[in-house]
Every structure is written in structure tokens, then in C-alpha cells.
Specification:
The complex is a heterotrimer of chains A (331), B (263) and C (278). Chain A is α+β, with helices and mostly antiparallel strands. Chain A is built from 8 helices and 18 strands. Chain A has 2 domains: 227 residues, P-loop containing nucleotide triphosphate hydrolases (Rossmann fold), CATH 3.40.50.300; 90 residues, Beta Barrel (OB fold (Dihydrolipoamide Acetyltransferase, E2P)), CATH 2.40.50. In chain A, strand 9 and strand 10 form a beta hairpin. The chains are: A alpha+beta (331), B mainly alpha (263), C mainly alpha (278). Chains in contact: A-B, B-C.
């Protein structure tokens, strides 16, 4: 195991009857990084997370956490803590008792617990609410308590199960920044599971794209976006045009890499077409352009001025892009 | 829909009248000067006074109360275990049989249970010399049929239970036993308490089963009431009935409040 | 966890299952008034034969099933609209309405039956009302007849019918009825094709909860019925306590058990299904 790696997963497999939820996954997570497991529903990311936490036991393979084999170890003996999607705050305890629960299990003296709980609540800005019950808190407040509860034990690994899923859009953006800030400040390794690729891309230092129990690609957000290894990854993250590159191989071309022109441009690759549809998204416009051979390309352009989009539906246009704009895929 | 609803609500009103008419009459006639339920002869508390002076009735009530306390508590504990096992243990040897054994006493005709338990105690008397038929045998019989009621309530509550709370507790370092003690039990306690109340009430009221397994010396309250009413209407029983209704109403209100208090 | 299963299992095996084995053993024996217990052990089916050939017993079996079945039906006919009304009432009133149905159940069974004794007697309220309204000329006899027994069973077991029915009806998604209406169904059709079928588990549970114990009822036929009201629970009691014939009474118990095994298993399956985690 790489000395830099805090988690080493090798050959992990989990089956539920005839269904293989996680299929021989190998993965290393580095100390101090914010790692995201990204994929659609049923891809196995949640099962993988639960195996890291200890709620599921793998049928095959090993899990090492900080050099120790934790494969069969129950959750209450792992140096790992989890923030649940539903937060799972104990309704019969107040905020302080919730946060202190894990410390009480460790047999820590009461004074010490009080101090640590106070610290943790300060960190998530919930110190004023220590005596409240979960039922009296808003969704965002409950999340912060859940976070404090998971962090107060200073775990080697913090697992987050769809941390932003329950929040509304505005709150989501703010929380995104807060989580990243907190992670950088504490230096704790975060592993989060999400189906939202925008979330994963904007928060993670590295991410793994999963599909049907297997990892399709691991890399930084930039690597995964600009150098996808397969059609699945190219299509899953953002929009992509998948073009045949001859010889049974494929090329991924991002919509923003293609230039839209009223007249024939000077470029490495040039095509002619007609705009079939325009989706106006405020900051950018996404055009569907039909080429002569019936293929449709997605082309996006930033609306840099306030004057509005100069192009219209049904307009004949020219497309141009540099030779290295596309990325050849392995699969 | 309105027509259907009106019919249903009429039936509901009729149903309530049907259910409560006898009870109301009994309560009213407990204050009747005359012995007869058919004639109102003026307000009187004499039957109440007679009831409270009725030694036999009072000692029977005391016995019933003690048996009910013991059997309700034991049934609550065993029923909690049974309900938990049914809700949580996915597969184990003889699970179907277990499920049947837990549920069957709920619907089994009491005469069948009565004769079978009596035979058990007679057999045990011959083999082990005991226990004597009385408090203990009655309590055992009551516990056996009450388990079903507690188990059903507990199982229903656990089916609704948010398992992620237990997972969170384990994640924070609690072993399964500690999880049960600190998270699960506190949250299902209202259901268990409600089951206890139900077992208590059923034990207080039981006649048939008790009649089979009681010895010559022990007379529970229902046994006394039964021997009295076989001979006809007895106004002291009316007074007793009023007390029972009041107690039952309070127990029920308490139980309802408990189950709604989902912490 | 093993202990959690073992404790109730052991208790029920000893105090519920084992006794049935004993009953079977005794049922195979014959009456011996001189020994203690008054049984001469053996392996004879004579008692069982008697139960199925003797006219009196056959009549008792049939009338028990008949009375239980009719009473169950009446209870269903009364209980269904009641449960329906409660399920349709304003959500904050429902707990109270339910409590009012359950309260009689928590009140002493014996006392409630006793209450009817007074009501149904020759000079009882019911007869007084009937005479006052001119519906009958002379006091009719209700107490001591099968009518009274039916009344008693319906009265005693009504809460057992209403509760499971309410549970099933409360779960009904009203948007289903709206969809039916939108697709052209009249309220009656919507009820028959949507509500009724979906409430069937509740109907089954309620009917079983009433039928099974009613077959073996003792107190109601004893206090409200007459000498010609034959119910098997009373027969068992009389054989045991009046005739002192333990083997015969045991045989009655075994037969009753066999008769009810089917319905009990059905009830247990219903319970298991409805208690599944959602």
C-alpha cells in the first residue's frame, strides 16, 4: 500500500443474490483528500461506502484503513465515522447529547466530553443550539449537527452519504463551500458519495466514476472531464459529442470546444450545418446543430455580452474546432 | 361520495350507541335505589356502599390486581423479546413455528387454552409436586396469552423504526447491546408501555382461562362476578362495572398518550 | 440475539405447545373417575368417534360454526361502515373516534355481557321500548335465545372487526379514487372496484379475529343463551366441570383446535405480511 494512501481497497466484491452490486473494485484514497464516488443509482457507490463504514461485509477482497485490515471489523470498532443522508440524529437527545454520544461510548470523562462537544459545535456554528432537540432544527442545522457528531471523534476517515441531496439549491451551494473549507481546515480525509456530477466536480480533489459495480475512471475533475477514458464517462460528466474516429474508435468532443460562426472560419476541422434548436440557459446557450450527414452536434457558447444570442433557430452556420479539441476514447 | 359518507357516518353513530348503551345503563342503574334494572326508584349510593364493604369482592379484586401487575410486567418483557425477534431476526430455525406460537394465543378459544394449561399443571403436580394451583398458575396462564398482544405492538413499532439511527449509533462506537439500550429501547418504550397496559387490562378481566387453572382457594374478581351474575342481575356488580369502566377509560387514554409520544 | 429468541420460544413451547401435546394424550385415554387425574391412559379414538357420531355433538359443532359465521357476517356489515367513516373523518378526530371504539374492548368483557343480560330480560329496556312503541304486544323473549347470543358476539367482538378494517382503509390512497372518478367511475363503482378490493386484507383479518374465538365462545352462550343454545365451548366446559370427563373434554379441545388450525394459520400469515417493514 502506498504510504500516502489512507484507504486501500482491493478486489472488493459484494453480491445481493443474483445481482453484483460491487464488482472487483480496486481503489486507493490518499490522506487528506476529498474523494468523491460518483455514479447513477444502482452503480454500487453507496454499497461501497457502506463497506468502508462496516455496515456491509464484502464477499471477496480486502479493505485496509491506515495499513490495518478492516475487512471484517464491525462499524463500532473502526476509526471511521459517517454522516448519513437522513442525518440520523437521535430524536430523544438534544444537540449536545447527540454530538457527545460517540465520546461517551469511548468512556471519555464528562468534563472532557463537554469541552470537545463545545469545540465541535463552534466549528459548525451551532453552539447556540446545544440544548435544542433535532425536531426543532431546520434541515441545514440538522446537517451541521450531524457533521459535528461525525467529526468530534477525530476519525481517520469521514464518510458522507449524498451530503447535499436533502438541501434546496441555494443552501446546497453555500454548504458545498463550507464542506470544502472545513475539510481543508481539519485535514481529515473525506469520502463522499453523490449522483450529482456538478457537486463531485466542484468539491472533490479526486473522483471515481462508477457504473454497474465497477469503477470506470479515477482522476482529478480536470482529468475526468478533459480526458475521459470511455463513452460512459464522457457522457456522464457534462455534455459530450461522441464521434466515430474510424477503426472502431471514438472521439469525445465537448460542446464548448466547438466554435459557432456565421461564415466559414479558419480552423483545423470545419463543418457546415443548420441550427435545429437553442436552449438558453442564461450564462450560456446550448445549440443543437444538424450537419449535412444527419448527425447532430451540441455546441455551446457563452453569452458574453448582454446583447443576446446572434444566432437563430433554422439558421445555417459553420462550426470549427482545433485538431486537439477532441479526446480519443479507449472504450 | 357524500352519500356514501353519510351512510357510513350514520352507521358509526349507531355503532357507538350500540356499544355504549349497555355500559351507560349499567352505570346509571348502579345508582338506582331499587334492585331491579327495569325500574328506576330513585338515586341511591347504597349499592356502592355495599360493594365497598363486600369483603369477598375486595379480596378478589386485590388478588386480581396483584396477578395483573406480575403478569403484565413479565408479559411485557417476554413480549418485547418476541416482537424484537420477529421484527429483526431474518431467518432462524423454526421461525414459522415461532411466529405461530406467538400469535396463536391471541385468537385461540380460551376453553382450549384453559384445558391444556390445566392438564400441564396437573401433570407437573404429579411429576414435580407443584406448583399449587393459585396465584402462580394463574399468572403463568395470563402471561402466556398476553405475550401475543405485546409482541404485536412491539413488532409494529419496530417495523416503522428508522434503522439508520441504529447504524449511526454503531458508527459512533456502540456495540449492538449498547445500541439497543441507548437508542432503540428508549424510542420504542411507549409501545412497550402500551403493551403492558393492554396485558394488565386483559389479565384483570380474564375469566375462562383463570377458571381452569385456579385452585379452590383463589377467587379472582371475574370469577366472583361470574358466580354472582349467573344468579341474575346484581346492583353491586353495576357499581363495580362503573369502576371498571372508569379505570379502563383512564388506562386507554394513558395508552393513547403514550403511543403518540414518539420521542 | 439468540437469547432474545430463546426466551419467548422456550416459554411458549413449555406453556403453550407442550400443553396441547398433553391434551392429545388425554384425549386418547378414557374416563376413570377414581384415579387422579381421572384418566385411564390408552390409545383409543373412542372419544373422537363419539364426537363425530353423536347427534348432540354434531349439532353443537354445526351450530357453533353457524352462529360464529353469522355473527361474523353481521359484525362485518356493521363494522365496515364504521371503520370507513372513521378513516374518512378529519385526521385530528380519528384517534378520538378510534379510542371510543376501543374503550369497550378495554372494559371488562364479562361486565359488558352482563350489561346485556339486564337489557334483554323480559322487563328489560329493549322489551320496554318495543312495547312502548307498539312493535310487540306481549313481552318477547330475547334473553335465552340464539338471537341474544348473536347480539352478544357482535357486541363483544365489534372492536376486533373495526380496528383491522380501519388500518386497511386508512392506508388507502384517496388519489386512487380520484383517478377512478376521473376515468368515469361512479362513486359506487369506485367503491366496489377500488376501495373494497384494497381493503380486503383488513376484511380477512377482521373476520378471522371475530370468527376464530367465537367458535369456542363460552361466556356469551352461557349468560345470554338458553338451554337449547348449543355451542361447543359450553359443551367442553360442561364435559370437564359438570361431568368430570376429562378425556372427552380433551377430545373436544383437540377437534376444536384442528377445526381452527386453518383459520389461525391464515391469520398468522396475514399478520406477518402486514408487519413487514415498509
Amino acid at each position: 500500500m502506498n504510504a500516502d494512501a489512507i484507504v486501500s481497497i482491493s478486489g472488493i466484491t459484494r453480491r445481493f443474490g443474483a445481482l453484483t452490486a460491487v464488482d472487483h473494485v480496486d481503489l486507493e484514497i490518499r490522506r487528506g483528500e476529498l474523494f468523491a464516488l460518483l455514479g447513477g443509482s444502482g452503480c454500487g457507490k453507496t454499497t461501497l461506502l457502506r463497506m468502508l463504514a462496516g455496515f456491509e461485509t464484502p464477499d471477496e477482497g480486502r479493505i485496509l484503513i491506515d495499513g490495518q485490515d478492516m475487512t471484517g471489523v464491525p462499524p463500532y470498532r473502526r476509526p471511521v465515522n459517517m454522516m448519513f443522508q437522513s442525518y440520523a440524529l437521535f430524536p430523544h437527545m438534544d444537540v449536545a447529547a447527540n454530538v457527545g454520544y460517540g465520546l461517551r461510548r469511548d468512556g471519555m470523562p464528562k468534563a472532557e466530553i463537554g469541552r470537545r462537544v463545545g469545540e465541535a459545535l463552534e466549528q459548525v456554528r451551532m453552539a447556540d443550539h446545544a440544548a435544542r432537540r433535532p425536531a426543532q432544527l431546520s434541515g441545514g442545522q440538522r446537517q451541521r449537527v450531524a457533521l459535528a457528531r461525525a467529526l468530534v471523534k477525530r476519525p481517520k476517515l469521514l464518510l458522507l452519504d449524498e451530503p447535499l441531496a436533502a438541501l434546496d439549491r441555494k443552501l446546497r451551494e453555500g454548504t458545498r463551500f463550507e464542506l470544502v473549507r472545513l475539510q481543508e481546515e481539519l485535514g481529515v480525509t473525506f469520502v463522499m458519495v453523490t449522483h450529482d456530477q456538478e457537486e463531485a466536480m466542484s468539491m472533490a480533489s479526486r473522483l471515481a466514476v462508477m457504473n454497474r459495480g465497477r469503477i470506470e475512471q479515477i482522476g482529478t475533475p480536470h482529468e475526468v472531464y478533459e480526458r475521459p477514458v470511455s463513452r460512459f464517462v464522457a457522457g456522464f460528466i457534462g455534455d459530450a459529442n461522441i464521434l466515430p474516429a474510424g477503426d472502431g474508435r471514438w472521439l469525445a468532443l465537448r460542446p464548448e470546444k466547438i466554435g459557432l460562426f456565421a461564415e466559414r472560419p479558419v480552423a483545423d476541422r470545419v463543418e457546415q450545418g443548420r441550427i435545429v434548436e437553442i436552449a438558453y440557459e442564461g450564462d450560456r446557450s446550448l445549440h443543437r446543430v444538424a450537419l449535412a450527414d444527419e448527425r447532430v452536434l451540441l455546441v455551446s457558447s457563452a453569452n458574453v455580452t448582454r446583447a443576446g444570442n446572434p444566432f437563430r433557430r433554422g439558421q445555417d452556420v459553420w462550426l470549427g474546432w482545433p485538431a486537439d479539441a477532441g479526446h480519443e476514447l479507449d472504450a | 361520495m357524500a352519500g356514501r359518507a353519510r351512510f357510513a357516518f350514520t352507521m358509526l353513530a349507531f355503532g357507538y350507541a350500540f356499544l355504549y348503551l349497555p355500559i351507560v345503563l349499567v352505570i346509571v342503574y348502579s345508582f338506582n335505589e331499587s334492585r331491579l334494572v327495569t325500574v328506576w326508584a330513585g338515586f341511591s349510593t347504597k349499592w356502592w356502599r355495599a360493594l365497598l364493604a363486600n369483603e369477598a369482592m375486595l379480596s378478589a379484586a386485590w388478588l386480581s390486581l396483584r396477578i395483573a401487575l406480575v403478569s403484565a410486567t413479565a408479559a411485557a418483557m417476554i413480549g418485547l423479546a418476541a416482537g424484537y425477534a420477529l421484527a429483526r431476526a431474518p431467518r432462524f430455525f423454526g421461525r414459522t413455528l415461532f411466529g405461530s406460537l406467538v400469535i396463536a394465543p391471541m385468537v385461540m378459544p380460551e376453553v382450549v387454552m384453559g384445558i391444556s394449561m390445566l392438564l400441564l399443571f396437573v401433570g407437573s403436580e404429579r411429576l414435580f409436586g407443584g406448583p399449587d394451583r393459585g396465584f402462580l398458575t394463574i399468572a403463568i396462564a395470563h402471561i402466556t396469552f398476553s405475550i401475543a398482544f405485546v409482541a404485536v405492538v412491539v413488532q409494529a413499532r419496530l417495523a416503522d423504526f428508522d434503522r439508520s439511527l441504529e447504524e449511526a449509533a454503531m458508527d459512533l462506537g456502540a456495540t449492538p447491546l449498547v445500541v439497543f439500550r441507548t437508542v432503540t429501547l428508549p424510542l420504542i418504550l411507549p409501545a412497550v408501555a402500551s403493551g403492558w397496559l393492554l396485558a394488565f387490562t386483559l389479565s384483570l378481566d380474564d375469566l375462562i382461562l383463570t377458571q381452569f387453572v385456579a385452585g379452590a382457594q383463589s377467587q379472582t374478581l371475574p370469577m366472583r362476578v361470574y358466580s354472582s351474575v349467573r344468579l341474575g342481575v346484581d346492583p353491586q356488580i353495576n357499581a363495580l362495572a362503573t369502576i371498571v369502566v372508569a379505570v379502563a377509560a383512564s388506562a386507554l387514554i394513558l395508552s393513547g398518550w403514550l403511543t403518540r409520544r414518539r420521542a | 440475539m439468540r437469547f432474545v429468541i430463546a426466551l419467548p420460544y422456550a416459554w411458549l413451547a413449555i406453556f403453550f405447545l407442550l400443553p396441547f401435546a398433553l391434551v392429545l394424550t388425554i384425549a386418547l385415554g378414557s374416563n376413570d373417575p377414581d384415579s387422579v387425574p381421572p384418566v385411564a391412559f390408552g390409545l383409543s379414538l373412542a372419544n373422537f368417534k363419539l364426537l363425530f357420531t353423536d347427534d348432540l355433538y354434531l349439532a353443537a359443532w354445526l351450530s357453533s360454526i353457524r352462529i360464529a359465521a353469522t355473527s361474523t357476517l353481521v359484525t362485518l356489515l356493521l363494522g365496515y361502515p364504521m371503520a370507513y367513516a372513521i378513516a374518512r373523518a378529519a385526521p385530528r378526530r380519528q384517534p378520538l373516534l378510534l379510542m371510543l371504539v376501543i374503550l369497550p374492548f378495554w372494559t371488562s368483557f364479562l361486565i359488558r355481557i352482563y350489561a346485556w343480560m339486564g337489557l334483554l330480560s323480559s322487563n328489560g329496556i329493549l322489551n320496554q321500548v318495543l312495547r312502548a312503541t307498539g312493535l310487540v304486544e306481549t313481552p318477547g323473549t330475547i334473553l335465552g335465545t340464539e338471537w341474544a347470543v348473536h347480539l352478544g358476539i357482535v357486541y363483544a367482538y365489534l372492536p376486533f372487526m373495526v380496528l383491522p378494517l380501519y388500518a386497511a382503509l386508512e392506508k388507502l390512497d384517496t388519489s386512487l379514487l380520484e383517478a377512478a372518478s376521473d376515468l368515469g367511475a361512479s362513486p359506487l363503482t369506485a367503491f366496489l372496484t377500488v376501495t373494497l378490493p384494497l381493503s380486503l386484507p383488513g376484511v380477512v383479518a377482521g373476520c378471522l379475529l371475530v370468527f376464530i374465538p367465537s367458535v369456542g365462545e363460552f361466556v356469551i352462550p352461557d349468560l345470554l343463551g338458553g338451554t337449547d343454545t348449543l355451542m361447543i365451548g359450553k359443551v367442553l366446559w360442561d364435559e370437564f366441570f359438570l361431568n368430570g370427563d376429562w378425556p372427552l373434554a380433551s377430545a373436544v379441545a383437540i377437534c376444536l383446535l384442528v377445526l381452527l388450525v386453518g383459520p389461525i394459520a391464515l391469520f398468522q400469515r396475514q399478520q406477518a405480511r402486514s408487519a413487514e417493514p415498509r
